[in-house]
Amino acid sequence: MSVSTNPSARGRKATAAPARRVRRLSGRDKVVLGLMVGVPTLIQLVLVWIPTLMSVGLSFTRWNGLELTDIKPAGGDNYQFVAQDYPPFWPAVQHNVLWLAFLAFVATPLGLLLAVLLDQNIRGTRIYQSVFFAPVMLSLALIGIIWQLFYNRDSGFLNFLLGTAGTPQAVDWFGDSSVNIWAALFAATWRHAGYVMILYLAGLKGVDPTLREAAQIDGANAVQTFFQVIFPAMRPVNIIIIVITVIESLRAFDIVYVINRGTNGLELISALVIQNLVGEGQVIGIGSALAVILLVISLIPITFYLSRAFGKDKEA
Amino acid sequence: MTMHEDALLRASSQGGWDRRTLLKTFGAGAVAMAGIPLLTACTGGSAPASSGSTTATFGSGSSDEVPKAAYKAVTDAFQKKSGVAITTNVVAHNDFQNKINTYLQGSPDDSFTWFAGYRMQYYAGKGLLAPIDDVWEKVGGNYSDALKKASTGADGKMYLIPNYNYPWGFFYRKSLWTEKGYAVPKTFDELKALCTKMKGDGLIPIEFADKDGWPAMGTFDYLNMRLNGYQFHMDLTAHKESWDQKKVSDVFDTWKALLPYQNPNALGMTWQDSAKSLADKKSGMYLLGSFLTQQFTDKAIADDIDFFPFPEIAVEGQDSIEAPIDGLLLSKKGGQNQSARDFLAYVGTPEGQDVYASVDSSNIATAKGADTSKFTPLNKKLAEAISGAKNISQFFDRDALPAMANNVMIPALQSFIKDGNVDVKNLEAQAKSLYAAQ
Q1: Which among A1, A51, A68 has the least Cβ separation from residue B29?
Q2: pLDDT digit string (tens) for A192-209?
Q3: Domains defined along chain A, listed by start
Q4: How do residues B164-195 score in pLDDT, each as one tens digit?
Q5: Are B346 and B338 in contact (CB under 8 A)?
């Protein structure tokens, strides 16, 4: 969703800049400009804004998905249902918060650590980078298989390491609702850390080496150099990472979905949205209400990001 | 193979979503769906069939190799017999099921594969299906009363031509039972006594898997039907009865007596895991659909599997059986095409069902007089269990509103399995909202 704001930002600049020289524009220029602004706007409108607004609209209705005349106004009933009668909802909110905390305090710092280590020109750094980044590129089905092999109760690698495989003491990593969220978070970290690592590696490469030299001349040690000079210098990357972490934790979905479709201790808002909107369990009103709730929550980090991004533009 | 696949697909649960599709889905969400009917309406589709035409279209959700070939054999045989050319449109199993709403409102085929139960009655009630009482007049004699009941809409008209079904019940390994001297339980008390004995012998008495959520519905359905009767099951799933009543809490209370005997690791297991456990003689018996047997590729094990129906508890003895029926429906448009009606009639004959079974032998043909000579002894037993039943239920997720089954029952049953608690008041509150949205 954060991506969606870019074309309109671009659009604004495009129209603002030529406004001063408007007389020099030929008819052809206007057509080209119109197309350049119009086409992205139209795509935005059709793919993002209209569906979003219609989702909001539908969340206040009851509809069986058959004829348009079957749409019945329902007021806030769907929201009331979600908050009061739908047992998976509050656990899902809790899990999303837990997910955010875990990514922010474990996965992201881990990614940063990997990036710093791999930035030291150690031998085979390319190989390590590829290894850590690989999980980001894997498909959903493959992730499912990998973690199944790892966590399986009777034949999984983890229980084998613990020496409990095949015994009654074996931990049921996916089925036991008190541990499966941690199993899923571990799997999520496995992906997220790789993602963060690549972004920070790029960020570290972009830091002016003279900063580092200057800090060293001033007598700063490696830790001081990093936290007081390098890390603040990567501010743009840091903001992106914060936003990515928040958004990843809100749209966290695939891992719980391959485990058990987001039930039994693995409820997440996104999984509930899918459950209620797609497929056989479709209840359009309630699904839309859940989607709107997710959208509103997502707007908070997006607004934060945008105000930072535009705020900086103004300063410059 | 369909039911196996059906179960498998539900088990692996729409595995094909990639992240992007999903994001699109919840971004575009409900509205994309709102748009679909309009879009499909624009695509036109086949020309309207007039009566007396010698062609008919057939939409099939049986996209797996074997059933697909089986339906092809049926359409070919029908064409040979009647000269009517059937054009088959095969759609991937899950897509077909998920998009049935838009399919029926757009330009559906004349006839299409579907199943008995709530959703058949629902679409019939919305006027999207054509009643086929005339076809039933011709072939009705081939079906038992239970099948007839399952093929009837809420308005009393006939809508479905059953093709095959597969029963749910207890499966066990004969050799293990002979070795330990177990006897088939007829009553619930006998079942509990047997469970205690098995537990003493170091077995998991009742194999159980519910990671995917739906298999536990089978236990619920049987306990409900044995305690409160078939009609109550139908009324409850259609939400004509409230969930917030003693009859429903009784079901869960009775189940509590069985919980200690069911595999305690059920929530982390798929039914395939459980099948393996049964094959390895780690567990005594397993309540599941007969698609279970397709897991046993080793012939020695497959031949060692036997079946008994769910024991009686309070009412109606063992009259009711859970045996989901797959068959053919006629769309509203297809109702005007006599050839499509003839096709359905053909599928309703022993002859037509034999053609199907000659390719796909894993299911039980529904028509009386269908060839059973190639049946294994187990299949014969399953067929007898079905034909002897007075009532056939369709499994909770076919008898109830799909949203009720998927969004409400799965979490409720999983939490019941976890700690033995269930909030019937909340079930009723959810049911009220969901059924009101239909």
Answers
A1: A51
A2: 888 898 898 888 888 888
A3: 89-266 (1.10.3720.10)
A4: 888 999 999 999 999 988 999 999 999 999 99
A5: no
What is the three-class DSSP state of B291? helix
Number of H helices, E strands in chain B: 22, 12
How does pLDDT run across A211-244, given as a tens digit for each residue? 888 888 888 888 888 888 888 888 888 888 888 8
Nearest residue to B314 via CA among B193, B187, B206:
B187
% helix, strand, coil for chain B, step of 5: 55, 15, 30
Task: Give me the amino acid identity at B262.
Answer: Q
Q: Which residue has the higher pLDDT, B46 or B433?
A: B433
CB neighbours of residue A212 within 10 Å: 17
User: Any residues with CB less than 8 A from the CB of B40 and at least 6 apart, and which?
Assistant: B102, B103, B105, B106, B107
Q: Are strands B168-173 and B283-289 parallel, antiparallel or unpaired?
A: antiparallel
Using the Cβ of B268 and the Cβ atoms of chain A, whether some distance falls under 8 Å is answered with yes
The closest alpha carbon to A173, from A194, A148, A139, A197, belongs to A148
Question: pTM score, two decimals?
Answer: 0.78
Interface of B with A in 215-254 (CB under 8 A): none
Distance CA B392, CA B364 (A): 14
**Cα(A50)–Cα(A44) distance, rounded to whole angstroms?**
8
CA atoms within 13 A on the CB side of A234: 25
Q: Which residues of A113-149 are buried (b: 16+ CB within 10 A; e: fewer)?
A: ebbbebbeeeeeeeeebeebbebeeeebeebbebbee
Reply yes or no on whether the pLDDT at B296 is more than 90: no
Length of chain A, in residues: 316
Q: Helix axis angle, B338-347 relative to B65-82, nearest 10°? A: 120
Do residue A273 and residue B267 have CB atoms under 8 angstroms apart? no
